[in-house]
Structure formats: C-alpha cells, structure tokens
Amino acid sequence: MSTDQERFSRCWHSDAPRVLAYARRHVGVHDAHDVVSETFLVAWRRWSEVPDPAIAWLLVTARRVVGNQHRSARRRHALADRIALLDGVASVEDRTTPETALRRGEALEQLASLTEDHREALLLISWDGLTTDQAATVLGLRPPAFRRRVSRARAALARIAEDPPGPRASPPVHPLAVPVTLKELR
Amino acid sequence: MTRDLTTTLEALRPEEDQLDEQWSRMTLASILATRVAPSRPRKYRAAGVAAGALGVALVGGGVATAAGLSPQSFVDAFRGWAVVSPESEPGRQAVDPADARRVATAAGPGDTVFTLVAASGRNGFTCVAALFETRASTDAALPNEFIDANGSSCAASPPADARFGDMGAVDVQRQPDVLGARDVRVLSIWAGPATRAVVRAPDGVEHPMLRFDGRFYGWFEGKGDATAPVVLVGYTADGAEVGRTRL
After folding, report:
1. Measured by CB atoms within 10 angstroms of the end CB, which terminus of chain B is less buried, N or C?
2. Within-domain flag for B195
3. Which residues in chain B are closer than 8 Å to A156, comparing Cβ atoms?
C-alpha cells in the first residue's frame, strides 16, 4: 500500500463516521452511506488538495453531495421531515422518562424550525464538534461572519421557544419513480 | 430549550456512528481501486486533459482493443439524456450529460473499474450510467475509455416503499464483449432499506454492489445454476441481512 493509500485509509477510518453522522441528519440513514462513499471518492480523486486535518474539507464536499441529491432537498422541505431527520440521529439518552422525552421532542422541533443556515451553524459546532474556523469553512464564511450567524441562530431559537411553531406539516407525497431506458434514444 | 442552549444541544448530540465493518472495508477498497488523479495548476488543466485523452487514443488503443473498450466521449455517448419527448415520456426532464460526475466506483472485471456516473436535471430528475472504464480513464473528469455496462436509466425518484430486490425480475444484461471471451453480466435492483449489498458469483467470489439513488448496481461473471447459483444479499446499516435473492 502506498503512502497516499495509507494516509487515505487512516482518514477514512477517523473521519468517515463523522461524515456519516453529518449526512444522516440531512438525508436519512439509507442515503447517508451514498453521501459518504461519494464524498470520499471525490477526496481520493483530489487527495493532493485535501488538507490535514481533513474533516472540514470533507464536510464541505459532503454538503455539496447532499445538495446534489434531489431527495434530500425534498426531505428538507417539510418541517415534519426535518424533525424526523433530526429525531433519527439525535441522542436517545434524554428519552428515558415522559418528561425528558417531551422536552427532547420540543427541542428537536425548535431546531427544525430554524432556517437551514441557522440550524447548520449551531449543529456544526455542537453536534459535529468542529471548531469555529472549521465550521466557518464548511459554510463558506469568514470566522467573524460565522460567529455572527451563530449569535443570530441563538436569538432565533429563543424567539421560537417563546412562540413555538404550529401543528406539524404533513409529509410530502413521494412520486413514483419512472425508470426509463435510454438505449433506444442513443 | 434556550434556558441552557448549550446543555440541551449537547444532550441531543448524536452518539458516534459506527461504520458497518464490511461496508467500510468494501467501500474503502472500491475507492482505492481507482487511480488518484494528479492535481495540476488550473492553467495547465485543460491542456493536461487534452494530452491525456490523446494518450488514451494512441497509447491506450492497444489496451482498448484487448479489453474490448474503446475511447469515446462520455458526453457524446449519453447525449440522449438531453433529448426529451414529452409525448412518449411524460414527466421526463432533460439532463445535460456534461454535468455528470462519478458517484461510485468498484473494481470491475480484469483491470477495469466499474463506475457509476450520474447527472441531475430540473426537479431532481436524475440519469445514471453504469460503465466499465480503464484505469487510465479514471484520471479524466469524465470517463473517456469505457463500455456502457447496462444502458442508462433516468428517473424522478425511487419509490419510497421499494424493498430490497424489488422490480420483480432482477435486471441482468450480458456483456460478452467487455473483456474478450469473459462472460460478464450486469444487474441493477432497488435497494430498499439495504445500505450494502453483494452479488455472490457461481465461482464463490463476492462483488460489492454500488448504491446510488435508491438502487444497487453490480456485476458478476458466469451463469449460475442449481448447484452454484448467483445470489444477491442485502444488509442494513447495522450489518443485519435484509434480503437474499437467487438469480
């Protein structure tokens, strides 16, 4: 195995779980694996450009991959779907009593009610464990701008907590796939 | 929640994901099976690609002949993606093959690489092509020395309730010319809840399938029979078997 392959393998083992965690809250568990493999495929093809540590670069790439996945965009559209995605990844330790379960549900609903920009700013720090500089890189911001966004996100969350969102929206109806073979066209 | 935001968010922080060991090993091996594209300064990139393509045509020609692969432009080969006939294909959206990107790779037969290339149009309408390409071809931004493994398919989205192996019959297409006399077959199935799948060939060799957009794509050699069947097995993210299909 070459040095590059060894370095890449180490990066895979250390960072793939973190990229998977990031992807799961955006696209769900099934498509998250697609996001991880595509992200690292891009990383391997551009390995000489990948910095060490690689996590911020990888999450920037994962963010683009998620953006290319049309289903993820649809899933983020409805509040109920955003809550379901967050619920699928958030810790379940705080669900041990009815009271804590209720508090957990309210907290996730409030998080899901934030704009995507605000929610991402908060979660890159508190869930993904990135530094301010790394999180700013993922979002394409300078650190001061990122800190301002975090501040606004906290304020928005405070407003939502005082005036919670209304009833959950219904999940969208998923259109059936229409596979089309293009052999005849070519 | 805002009374102690940091504490609440920390309490909700997801437990660290553990990768399924088999999925991790197979995916890493699949990625490493491709060659690393050397990075060049942007001003030289266009010239580098052009020279690379010429090298494939001249130097790689022998390889292409032996392997049954031929240099061609990906965009030309899949220009049909951009052709829309509203009457015969309602709901279909035009997709520009020039926007395509490699989304997954695995080792292919011989010295080839099995590659999925995909592009999306409006409303998330996505076209996917499964290819066998040479290792030299993987250096280029898009495949330029390849065989179209099983045609391509375009879809708005996979069915939400698809089960592993759904589609009734598994779509298997024989590719006798991929590597000379080698009897290579290509298949695609719905993934359902499976995040990893393998196809076990009659000779016992397991090939990892590539997952993209709710489908698995894979290949194997030979033709199964009652004593040595071809078997598809799907696994969930935690490694549990979710389905098994004999071809």
Report:
1. C
2. yes
3. none
